[in-house]
């Protein structure tokens, strides 16, 4: 390029250089540089932040499957009288700390809303408060519509419980986690497992090379 | 006339150089200014319980997890376990969601951003320690299975190393994994065998499911990071001898020696290579190459102009172009950032250990003496803990550090 051509084009060249630099640096490659407003999502929807562990869409999918399976159980559907069930917290044998109550609580809520009184759950987690109320009634500090000296707390016919088991592989190619969600309904009198069902989910991911 | 032509051509080359250099220099200045980021400067008081919340709230988001880690460790030593829980939970949520595209991590891998641009989640030994602390807290809350989950994750974080000789070789997480399983009525023998295989110079005590009081100990100063290499592109771990080598537990009439089970310095130093080390190495090579090329171009261009003595306009232009290219190359070299990220969880301990004791329900007092390498107690570090063993059969978990407050009521 001759000196005249260079001289003629210096301003456009400079402008091009500046534009290239400014457009190249300004928030280059940064997704959502200004952040993202809070949006409401469906619980069974996978969010943009995800790991390989237990997430809301897994809880929804697993508990929906368990509740539908339980609802069809002959011992529930054709029971003489109304079976009473106590929740026994799930055992976590995975590598992910979890809220242990969330699975059974969601199954209980689904059953209570759909079973139309065919099942009754016993609030054993509230026993301390219930016993305190009974003491108040027995001492006459509060009124009672029935004889407070008669124990009317019901015994369980069944226990609903579960176990989460996991298997993990981690190499330079990534991390893979498999979780087996296993739930059981156990006869409180005989210890027989009357119902069992499971769901399994496997996930894998690879972090950016900057973290390896 | 020849002289006039020579002078006029030299003047033309200088003019070209001047005219081309200004846009190039302006572009380079904009490159540096446009890429620089401004962050709020956090004034540190030296009190981690003040500095950490301030940094978490107002500092760069990429350092949040680092401050959460530091705050959690300090909070545990002050018996503020709720604070520790809250911060570890947030940090571990970030850690568990690092999969997939990450714009800051991608920038950190680029030539013109330092590695410290990425979100800090820690090296594997730091991530493992976060899980170990959280596991202790879960056990304190009567959730041994969630505690076990954390101990398993601690081992998993250590499992992908370049040098597989040291993969998954923490002792305490495996031992506690098996102990929690035994407590829950399962078979913890596989985890026990893994722990025993990794421990050095110790026979681990067999599991006693009846032991209802669990003591966790930590002592000594942990590792820190520094960088070496021409451009500080090589991450190194600094370790040192500890003034505290062991401990002695006295509770009721019982006395137990407490030997170190895990060496955090060892875990840090045996991490092996990182993929990021190779990237930083490439950045260093690029920095050197562009610097050398820039120097060569400037020298070559200058030489071309001087040698020509104004006889050849084309040579002058080529020389001028080389000089401009050389300046740009130098600027690019200057903007390249191969420095390794040396942000450190700098209040970790050197050693971890553990003891279990069966005690009847009711009040008890424990004294923990920390011993020097000669086995002599360091009186200024002795801790006293009062605690109540619950009657409901749940385990009592006590955390004691050589930096804990004393006396403690647990």
Q: What does this protein look like?
A:
The complex is a heterodimer of chains A (212) and B (410). Chain A has helices at residues 3-25, 56-71, 74-77, 101-114, 127-138; strands at residues 84-87, 91-93, 120-121, 158-171, 174-187, 193-205. The radius of gyration of chain A is 30 Å and the shape is elongated. Chain A contains five helices and six strands, in the order H-H-H-E-E-H-E-H-E-E-E. In chain A, strands 1, 2, 3, 4, 5 and 6 form a six-stranded mixed sheet that branches. With 212 residues, chain A is α/β, with parallel strands linked by helices. In chain A, a hairpin with a 5-residue loop joins strand 5 and strand 6 (193-205). In chain B, helix 6 (124-140) packs antiparallel against helix 7 (144-157) and helix 11 (275-308) runs antiparallel to helix 12 (313-335). The longest helix of chain B is centred in the first third of the chain and has 34 residues, at 2-35. The relative contact order of chain B is 0.14. In chain B, the strands form three sheets. A five-stranded mixed sheet of chain B has the order 5-4-8-9-11, with no helix packed on it. Chains A and B meet through helix 1, strand 2 and strand 4 of A and helix 1, helix 5, helix 7 and helix 11 of B.
């Amino acid at each position: 390029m001759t000196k005249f051509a260079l001289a003629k084009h210096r301003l456009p060249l400079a402008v091009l250089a500046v534009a290239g630099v400014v457009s190249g640096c300004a928030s280059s490659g940064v997704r959502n540089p200004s952040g993202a407003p809070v949006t409401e999502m469906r619980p069974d929807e996978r969010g943009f932040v995800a790991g390989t562990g237990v997430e809301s869409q897994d809880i929804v999918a697993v508990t929906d499957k368990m509740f539908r399976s339980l609802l069809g159980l002959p011992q529930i559907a054709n029971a003489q009288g109304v079976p009473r069930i106590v929740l026994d917290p799930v055992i976590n044998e995975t590598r992910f700390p979890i809220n242990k109550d969330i699975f059974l609580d969601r199954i209980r809520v689904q059953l209570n809303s759909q079973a139309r009184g065919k099942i009754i759950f016993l609030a054993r987690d509230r026993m301390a408060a219930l016993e305190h109320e009974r003491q108040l009634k027995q001492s006459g500090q509060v009124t009672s519509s029935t004889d407070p000296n008669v124990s009317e707390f019901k015994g369980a016919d069944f226990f609903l419980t579960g176990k989460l088991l996991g298997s993990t592989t981690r190499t330079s190619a990534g991390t893979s986690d498999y979780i087996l969600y296993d739930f059981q309904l156990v006869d409180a009198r005989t210890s027989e497992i009357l119902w069992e069902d499971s769901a399994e989910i496997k996930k894998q991911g690879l972090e950016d090379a900057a973290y390896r | 006339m020849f002289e006039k032509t020579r002078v006029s051509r030299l003047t033309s080359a200088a003019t070209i150089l001047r005219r081309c250099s200004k846009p190039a220099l302006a572009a380079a200045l904009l490159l540096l200014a446009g890429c620089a980021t401004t962050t709020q400067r956090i004034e540190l008081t030296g009190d981690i319980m003040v500095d950490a919340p301030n940094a978490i709230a107002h500092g760069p988001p990429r350092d949040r997890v680092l401050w959460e880690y530091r705050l959690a460790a300090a909070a545990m030593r002050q018996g503020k376990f709720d604070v520790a829980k809250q911060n570890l939970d947030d940090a571990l949520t970030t850690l568990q969601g690092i999969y997939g595209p990450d714009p800051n991590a991608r920038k950190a891998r680029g030539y013109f951003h330092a590695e410290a641009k990425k979100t800090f989640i820690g090296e594997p030994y730091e991530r493992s320690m976060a899980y170990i602390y959280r596991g202790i807290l879960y056990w304190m809350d009567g959730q041994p299975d969630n505690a076990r989950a954390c101990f398993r994750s601690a081992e998993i974080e250590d499992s992908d190393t370049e040098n597989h000789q040291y993969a998954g070789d923490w002792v305490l997480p495996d031992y506690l994994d098996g102990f929690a399983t035994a407590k829950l009525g399962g078979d913890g023998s596989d985890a026990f065998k893994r722990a025993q295989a990794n421990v050095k110079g110790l026979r681990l005590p067999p599991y006693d499911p009846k032991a209802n009081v669990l003591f966790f100990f930590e002592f000594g100063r942990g590792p820190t990071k520094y960088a070496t290499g021409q451009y500080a592109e090589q991450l190194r771990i600094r370790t040192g001898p500890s003034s505290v080598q062991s401990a002695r537990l006295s509770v009721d009439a019982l006395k137990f020696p407490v030997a170190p089970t895990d060496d955090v310095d060892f875990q840090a130093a045996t991490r092996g290579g990182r993929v990021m080390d190779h990237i930083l190495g490439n950045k260093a090579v690029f920095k050197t190459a562009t610097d050398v090329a820039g120097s060569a171009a400037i020298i070559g261009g200058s030489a071309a102009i001087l040698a020509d003595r104004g006889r050849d306009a084309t040579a002058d232009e080529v020389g001028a172009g080389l000089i401009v290219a050389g300046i740009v190359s130098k600027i690019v070299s200057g903007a390249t950032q191969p420095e390794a990220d040396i942000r450190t969880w700098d209040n970790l301990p050197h050693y971890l250990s553990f003891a279990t004791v069966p005690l009847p329900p009711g009040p008890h007092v424990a004294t923990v003496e920390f011993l020097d390498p000669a086995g002599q107690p360091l009186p200024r570090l002795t801790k006293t803990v009062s605690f109540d063993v619950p009657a409901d059969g749940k385990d009592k978990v006590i955390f004691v550090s050589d930096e804990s407050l004393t006396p403690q009521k647990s």
